[in-house]
Amino acid sequence: MGEEAKGDFEPKIVGFTCNWCTYAAADLAGTSRKKYPPNSRIIRLMCSGRLDPMFVLKVLLNGADGVFFSGCHPGECHYIKGNFYARRRIAALRTILKEFGLDERFKSYWISASEGEKFANTMKSQAEEVKKLGPSPLRGKIL
Amino acid sequence: MKGAELKPADLKGLLRGLLEKGVVDCLVMPHRAGKTVSYMLVKDPDKIESPESAIFAPSFVVNAANLVKGWTIKEKVGIVAKPCEIRAAIELIKLKQMDNESVLLIAVDCSGAYTNQVYTENYADIGDQADSAKMKALEGKGVTIRDACAICANKLADVGDIIIARAAGENLVAAGLTDMGVDALTTLELSLEDKDLERTAEKEKIAGDAKAKLDALPQMGSLDALEEFLHDCIVCKNCRDMCPVCYCKECFFEQPLGKPTGGDLLNLAELRGAIGLPPGQLFYHLTRVYHVSTTCVGCGACEDACPKDIPLTRFYPVITQKVQDIFEYVPGKDVEEPLPFTAYEEEELEDKLRD
Fold first, then answer.
1. Residue B339's CB: how many other CB atoms inside 10 A?
2. Hey, is the C-beta of B319 within 8 angstroms of any chain A C-beta?
3. Quick one: closest CA in B to A49, which residue?
4. Angle at A30 between CA A25 and CA A34, to 5 degrees
């Protein structure tokens, strides 16, 4: 592990999506037969507000090469304000991760239920970006 | 603000008065024991002997807010402490760990503090209180204040219900900041007059010095540096226990998921090939720094508490300061201001999600 050449490895990406928008968008991407790389493993939450930043830390420390979080566009949350709270938490977490150069492995998106194409494109571009970054430096460490 | 001038010798009367007149039911305040100071909980006014020798002592023992955290009693508790401790108490009020109506917060001007060990060793030179000239001279001899104090920009008392400020010469000023504070001073029959205690120029100078010290602290900057920094951590969680604003009753890191043992650890080792022991140094500290990211008052109690002498001031206050900056939030400044994670604006922070 950690020895694969940059760009020549298949990254593992863990995604946290909300049930109402981004998960539905992933569904739509599937039913409309949009192709995207199989690197992401999606964990469905009922709302992006359910995302405890510890989930992201745990995933990164366990060696995921990339993490993303995606929910309804601000103002369109199924639970009215879940993603507003999520946005503050994510902003705080990213500020911390930035101190150690881990922020580039943690992406956040807003993708609504009708944006199947955007979902597929986002997955594609993130997989490419993470490939460029190479394997996570945390993978080989003894933590 | 309304305040009254005092001589150091009047402090005893003021604090005794709070108890005698029933303004508070008890006081948590520093008391002197030879070359050192520590906190006491007083009910009997006669036990307050020479407060002026203890409350200005530049020594940090424990964060007073941590001592009264979670006290859910009806009796009114007066707390006499440094500004960082009072700010922590205000955060605890916002976190519903204390009741605003049952505490009277009295902040005392601070000049920066030594660890209590350094203070006791150098008591002959430092004395009961220190001014900047004396501290500078000591710095030349290698006796320095704690890192957390060196980078603190809020040493002058400007929070709580009552402040006790050092004025020209030996004089002091006691002033009420809130209705509760002014009422307390009125009950003591002090003749209150308008006082200007903004001290803007002085504050700017302190903030400038603090910034210079902060910039001079070694930066971590990379994951490898963080790994090395935390390498000696034994995950005793003393930094959590001494932190005034770490308040969960059931800490995640005391539960099976956060504190895996035996078979769980074996499974993790199977997954990763090898894991460090004790497990979870990075996970623990990164989680904790997120948990206190908006409420950390930068008192440095975590560093003092570390049995392995890890300079945690370079981690906790330095990183949380950056998070507080994005929310433009100063912990402990205003009891009415909502905690950043309990509020939101409809349009904000999008650049912080992506840059």
1. 14
2. yes
3. B341
4. 95
